[in-house]
Amino acid sequence: IDGMVQPDAGEVEIGETIRIGYFAQEVPDMDTNQRVIDYIRDVAEYIPTRDGKISATMMLERFLFDSAMQYAPIAKLSGGEKRRLYLLKVLMEAPNVLLLDEPSNDLDIPTLTILEDYLDSFAGIVIAVSHDRYFLDNIVDRIFAFEGNGHLTQYEGGYTDYTEALARKGGAVSEGQSIAVGAEKKKSAQADWKQNRPQKLKFTYKEQREFETIDDDIATLEELLEKLDKDMEANATNSVKLREIMEQKEKAQADLDEKMDRWVYLNDLAERIEAQKSEK
Questions:
Q1: Which one-letter DSSP state was computed for residue 41?
Q2: Which of 125, 126, 169, 127 is nearest to 147 (CA)?
Q3: CATH topology of domain 20-138
Q4: Maximum CA pair distance of the chain?
Q5: Could you tell me if 110 and 87 are in contact, meaning their C-beta atoms sit under 8 angstroms apart?
Q6: CA distance 237 to 280
Q7: Closest CA to 20 of 94, 85, 88, 84
Q8: Is the per-residue pLDDT at 26 higher than 90?
Q9: CA proximity to 200, closest of 169, 173, 167
């Protein structure tokens, strides 16, 4: 699609107004001596959005690069932070067509949440190849499934809608099948077995990572709320500061409530997965 590999036959036509942004699995080489802010400003100083122009500095903050990190050399960043910076660079190119190749690989949960929020308001087209079912459910409204023997089928909706559509057709998503590339169909008996066997419960890649970190996230939010309570007591006579702290507390409480809901869901799923294993 991006022209990096030429087709064996036929042509790819790209419209004059199309601006493609390609987020690859591998982070391209960076000048590690360059400052984080300059890496982004080399692309653009501002990015147009539905809410108006946003500066490079504001976008960096949105993608969890505080002022200290913005003026640090890229060499100081971790591998995950470099991937997040690369993602931001692609978005700062202001594309109207985004190609995302396994975007959830090596991105932490906060970055994935920011990306999903950004894509919610993205005015262009997003084409993503991913094995992260949760991510697909959150961002896509159409799926192209490679179902073997060179057969490509279009389904409306996200991943869950896709599996439900398959169920209505009398099929099932087999473990070896991918939204990106479907394996060749096996012998008919094996195919029938895969279609009729019960669906296995398991974490998505993102859910597994979230399950591993959610206890620490909840503890951090609880500590923050305790600190904000103390700050409120210390600033009881400062109405301006008090209002600011109360807003921070409301947000932290909302974040904690959301995390607790996810904790209940993930732990319930973990228990059902363990129960499924013990039945073998």
A1: H
A2: 169
A3: Rossmann fold (3.40.50)
A4: 76
A5: no
A6: 63
A7: 94
A8: no
A9: 173
How is residue 35 annotated by DSSP? B
Domain ranges for the chain, please list them: 20-138, 141-196, 205-278
Q: What is the full DSSP assignment across 188-217?
A: HHHHHHHHHSPPPP---HHHHHHHHHHHHH
Pair 149, 184: CB distance under 8 Å: yes
State how far the Cα of 22 lies from the Cα of 10, in Å rounded to an integer: 22
How deeply is 120 buried, as exposed, middle or buried, from its count of CB atoms within 10 A (0-12, 13-18, 19+)?
A: exposed
> Distance between CA atoms of 87 and 135, rounded to whole angstroms?
16
Strand ranges, E, within the chain: 20-23, 46-49, 52-55, 97-101, 125-129, 142-146, 152-156
Structure tokens, 274: 């363990």
CA atoms within 13 A on the CB side of 221: 19
Q: Reduced to 3 states, what is the DSSP secondary structure of residue 29?
A: coil
Collect all residues with Cβ–Cβ distance below 8 Å to 273 and sequence separation of at least 6.
201, 202, 203
Helix axes 109-120 and 79-92, enclosed angle (nearest 10): 10
| pTM for this predicted structure | 0.58
Kindly indicate whether the domain formed by 205-278 is annotated with CATH number 3.40.50: no
Percent of the chain clearing pLDDT 70 (strictly above): 86
Q: What is the pLDDT of residues 80-129, one digit of tens each?
A: 899 999 999 999 888 999 999 988 887 878 888 888 888 887 888 999 99
For 194-228, write each residue's pLDDT tens digit.
445 445 567 777 788 888 899 999 999 999 999 98
Which pLDDT score is estimated for 193?
A: 40
Strand, coil or helix: what is 48?
A: strand
